[in-house]
User: Which sequence fits this backbone?
């Protein structure tokens, strides 16, 4: 019943998700023979999580835990179980999701279908690396168990498979042992991207979690202000595991279009940098470190009626930093400075998913308000730069790339097609697969 | 430890309420018709923190079986702190106007069986001398309208019954009548949703709080109280002309 079709809110299309509670309801619905999309919490920014033609199935109510072994950290649940619920159950027992995106309002199915990555990619790979098995429901051949050893191809095409290979019914995740529910966090400022490269390289060996925030206003040939955050779980039993509590704020109505404007964001970016000008250390809770944005419900409404785009790409290690600099310089030259910029180095662990986004290299996520044609032109130019550098875009964040761009970035596309469930689709898929 | 019994446990509203009780570490006894759904739900509730879960498979219209169920619950749990009656169906009004067997079944499910199981639970609590009994009625029971007055009549019977029961069991036993407005659950799947609609999570949170506060009647969400004040104030000569 939520009022948005996906997180970017760039479209005013209204659709009514069809929720199911039980497996037999799912089977009934798939018998209808209409094109279908299956979504979780629609936290993807673009159009992978809906279809404007056909039925929009939603797993939100298919959210039951099946098994949780406190000794081994093996967790099995329905695909609609949210990360928020998983944390609530597992953290007090000393277990944490092995890979976490920047919000806990995502479903297990969504995390698998986009093979999400987190601040620990350099240590743990992406989410799919931690899935030991899953059951799919396919309109063509019913219920199928898949794992790295059983139906292996279907398994590896489902991880990062954008919800197109079948409905993920249940999945089993190996959680990660944690010694406490707090993290020791260091924030280290840098003045340019060379410094960033050095600090990241050093941090990635001794810190489990690293991510950098960039002040895109400061970009020039020689400067780029930013802050690298790095963290490890506090390694002591003294901090007893307590249930994390949430403080909530809410953006009640969609803001007027001018609410978040470039002036305000410049002010924010500069002052944020100034506030962290010196290296700082802090102990943070899981919620404060992993999900700072979740403190404000529906923050996407701040971008106003026209919504926004997030542009996230990954560029191979060698040219990565230079290419990212090129993007930022180009955006500044065009007078379209991203409101938020986040930079992370992916590690070498290969993804299990055939269509997964992560690969070794640097990834940057840039938020742009939707200013229509101007924004789209800028992002098309970005695509050209990324293609040339052999990089690729993250489908979870995309709402606009051209089919040819997608098919060059994901040459696996051709072999992937043989694993599709003919009933499943998305606006994304109809757009990029032509 | 708090012992909670929930009938109609597989309903959208009941599931959310059960999850709240599970996170509080309560011991849960759940009853509904579908055995495999009961098994799935007990497993989920245990992992979500319930200290124990038990289930009982029952069609609440089999009134002769209800005492046996209560006895079993009693033997297993010892005592009952909170009991919630949440089963129900939304009848097809037009069919209920012509098919009398159907109408009777619907009146039974939504009215008679609810009253029967509430009576047995009330007696149990009366002998314990404590407990909270919570029954989900509906705003539809506050005034009959042509689009669903069979359902409304059954819920109205439940609401009036609960008033009497509250009066009878005062002051030891807390008797709560819940009157939800429109809630997005399987019961209302085929309806188009608008701004008056609420979620089972919200309704469940309201119910949990009302049990704590020992409220008598809960309209949920709160604005339904005022909507129903107005609807009840409309004179019948006007109301009968409306298409509601
Ligand atoms: C604030 C914020 C921060 C984020 N941070 C990160 C981050 O750090 N790293 C990252 O990788 N991502 C990040 N994301 C993106 C987000 O993690 C992904 O888009 C995720 O997939 C969303 O999960 P969801 O449950 O909302 O899925 P949806 O958006 O509803 O669906 C995502 C995809 O999964 C498919 N799908 C969903 N359920 C099933 C199922 N049961 N069976 C088959 N297919 C299914 C859908 O068809 C769709 O293709 C972030 C998003 C937000 C809003
Ligand atoms: N949804 C609303 O808008 C709304 C508004 C006002 C009041 N209410 C009331 O709130 C309560 C819960 O509603 P809901 O919307 O959550 O309903 P729901 O999801 O449709 O669930 C109804 C439940 O009742 C059970 N049930 C039906 N007949 C039964 C019988 N003879 N014996 C045992 N169980 C039976 C069903 O079990 P099975 O799985 O076995 O079918 C199901 O679990 C109901 O009393 C309803 O009238 C709902």
Assistant:
């Amino acid at each position: 019943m939520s009022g948005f079709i996906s997180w970017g809110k760039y479209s005013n299309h209204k659709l009514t998700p069809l929720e199911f509670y039980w497996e037999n309801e799912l089977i009934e619905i798939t018998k209808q023979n209409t094109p279908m999309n299956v979504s979780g919490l629609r936290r993807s920014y673009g159009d992978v999580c809906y279809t404007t033609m056909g039925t929009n199935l939603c797993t939100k109510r298919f959210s039951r835990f099946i098994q949780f072994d406190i000794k081994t950290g093996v967790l099995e649940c329905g695909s609609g179980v949210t990360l928020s619920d998983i944390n609530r159950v597992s953290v007090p027992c000393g277990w944490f999701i092995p890979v976490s995106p920047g919000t806990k309002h995502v479903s297990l199915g969504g995390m698998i279908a986009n093979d999400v990555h987190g601040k620990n990619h350099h240590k743990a790979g992406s989410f799919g690396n931690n899935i030991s098995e899953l059951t799919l429901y396919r309109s063509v051949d019913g219920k199928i168990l898949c794992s790295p050893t059983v139906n292996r191809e279907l398994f590896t095409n489902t991880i990062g498979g954008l919800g197109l290979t079948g409905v993920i019914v249940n999945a089993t995740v190996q959680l990660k042992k944690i010694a406490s529910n707090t993290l020791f966090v260091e924030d280290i400022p840098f003045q340019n991207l060379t410094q960033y490269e050095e600090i990241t390289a050093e941090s990635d060996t001794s810190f489990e979690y690293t991510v950098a925030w960039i002040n895109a206003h400061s970009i020039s040939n020689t400067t780029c202000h930013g802050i690298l955050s790095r963290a490890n779980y506090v390694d002591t039993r003294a901090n007893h595991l307590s249930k994390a509590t949430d403080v909530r704020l809410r953006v009640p109505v969609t803001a007027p279009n001018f609410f978040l404007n470039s002036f305000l964001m410049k002010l924010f970016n500069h002052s944020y940098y100034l506030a962290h000008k010196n290296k700082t250390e802090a102990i943070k809770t899981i919620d404060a470190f992993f999900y700072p944005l979740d403190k404000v419900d529906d923050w996407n409404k701040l971008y106003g009626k026209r919504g926004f785009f997030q542009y996230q790409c990954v560029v191979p290690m060698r040219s990565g930093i230079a290419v990212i600099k090129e993007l930022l310089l180009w955006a500044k030259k065009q007078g379209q400075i991203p409101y938020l910029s986040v930079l992370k180095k992916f590690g070498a662990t290969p993804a299990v998913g055939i269509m997964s986004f992560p690969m070794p290299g640097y990834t940057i996520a840039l938020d742009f308000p939707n200013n229509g044609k101007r924004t789209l032109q800028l992002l098309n130019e970005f695509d050209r730069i990324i293609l040339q550098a052999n990089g690729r875009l993250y489908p979870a964040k995309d709402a606009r790339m051209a089919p040819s761009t997608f098919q060059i970035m994901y040459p696996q596309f051709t072999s992937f097609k043989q694993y599709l469930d003919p009933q499943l689709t998305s606006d994304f898929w109809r757009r990029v697969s032509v | 430890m708090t012992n909670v019994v929930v009938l109609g446990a597989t309903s959208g509203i009941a599931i959310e309420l059960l999850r709240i009780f599970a996170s509080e570490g309560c011991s849960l006894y759940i009853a509904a018709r579908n055995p495999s759904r009961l098994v799935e739900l007990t497993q989920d509730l245990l992992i979500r923190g319930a200290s124990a879960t038990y289930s009982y498979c029952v069609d609440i219209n089999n009134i002769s079986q209800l005492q046996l169920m209560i006895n079993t619950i009693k033997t297993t749990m010892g005592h009952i702190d909170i009991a919630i009656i949440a089963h129900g169906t939304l009848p097809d009004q037009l069919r209920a106007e012509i098919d009398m067997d159907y109408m009777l079944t619907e009146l039974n499910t939504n009215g008679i069986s609810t009253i029967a199981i509430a009576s047995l639970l009330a007696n149990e609590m009366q002998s314990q001398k404590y407990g909270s009994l919570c029954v989900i009625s509906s705003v539809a029971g506050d005034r009959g309208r042509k689009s669903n007055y069979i359902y409304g009549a059954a819920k109205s019977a439940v609401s009036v019954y609960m008033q009497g029961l509250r009066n009878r069991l005062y002051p030891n036993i807390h008797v709560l009548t819940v009157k939800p407005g429109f809630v997005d659950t399987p019961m209302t799947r085929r309806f188009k949703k608008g701004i008056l609609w609420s979620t089972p999570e919200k309704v469940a949170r309201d119910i949990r709080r009302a049990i704590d506060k020992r409220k008598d009647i809960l309209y949920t969400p709160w604005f339904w109280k005022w909507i129903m004040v107005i609807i009840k104030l409309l004179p019948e000569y006007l109301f009968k002309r409306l298409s509601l």
